[in-house]
Design brief:
This is Glutathione S-transferase family protein. By secondary structure, the protein is an alpha+beta fold. Helix content is 55%, strand content 6%.
Length: 264
């Protein structure tokens, strides 16, 4: 079986996927791609690209297994964990449900908020500086009309001042709420979110690794959450993932991601 992971800088969902390679010890060929040049959409050798083309996560990592594209960081984490013996998912059915509900909260509320703030601060200027021809070439292979539109909007930074203010405030609230959720979850003295270390820890840290750059002071007065983040960061798998960075500050590397939650 051939497994190739195409990934961006170790931040957000790419950090989750890279850390899971280390956690599982699977033989995965990790290949960096430039997400902001659209390289995710020109991956060679795909026999089944549907998940890559229509994934909701946006410009996240792509795991290619014998020619089939697999996407969405939580699903990739589960796939790799189950391939390696299922060490990072609770065996108890209720505890497993709790973990999945936690991950859904992160991917549906925290991830779009982090992506909005990250793209506003860091990706929009990069895309805006692109020549029109270069930008058009980058988005030409994108199959999803929704994702292509997010690229266009990210480059144009075209929201009205009022809409930007509302989105910034809402996203800041949701990102802060995610850190507070971690703080509250650890109130009983546990070290990891589900008791034992799990996919929930890896996925949550992936989206919160750059939180301080997006919401300065977000870890202040949340000592349990800050200590948890330090524990996750010090895991050999996460340290190895971060060591793959090709830029000085991978936590500022963003690309058009999950659509901002329109349902509140």
């Amino acid at each position: 079986m051939s497994m190739i992971l195409y990934h961006g800088e170790p931040n957000g969902p790419s950090l989750t996927a890279l850390a899971m390679v280390g956690e599982t010890g699977l033989d995965v060929d990790c290949r960096p791609i430039a997400l902001l040049r659209g390289e995710r959409h020109t991956i060679p050798g795909l026999t089944e690209p549907l998940a890559r083309d229509m994934g909701l996560e946006g410009e996240g990592p792509v795991l290619v297994v014998d020619g089939e594209a697999m996407t969405e960081s939580v699903f990739l984490a589960q796939y790799m964990d189950e391939m390696a013996g299922n060490a990072l998912q609770p065996k108890d059915a209720y505890a497993h449900w709790q973990m999945m509900m936690w991950c859904r909260r992160i991917t549906e509320r925290c991830a779009p908020a982090a992506a909005f703030l990250g793209n506003k601060a860091f990706a929009s200027p990069v895309l805006a500086a692109m020549a029109d021809a270069e930008f058009d070439a980058a988005i030409a292979p994108i199959v999803s009309g929704d994702l292509k539109q997010r690229w266009i909007e990210t480059r144009a930074d075209s929201m009205t001042e009022a809409a930007v203010g509302n989105a910034m405030a809402d996203s800041t609230t949701k990102l802060t709420a995610a850190v507070q959720m971690v703080e509250d979850q650890l109130a009983d003295g546990r070290e990891w979110l589900m008791g034992d270390v799990s996919i929930a820890d890896i996925e949550t840290y992936g989206w919160l690794a750059g939180a301080e750059a997006l919401v300065p002071g977000v870890w202040d007065n949340r000592p349990r959450a800050a200590a948890w983040a330090a524990r996750v960061r010090s895991r050999p798998s996460v340290a190895a993932a971060l060591a793959r960075a090709t830029v000085a500050q991978p936590e500022t590397a963003w690309a058009p991601g999950p659509e901002i939650n329109r349902w509140g």
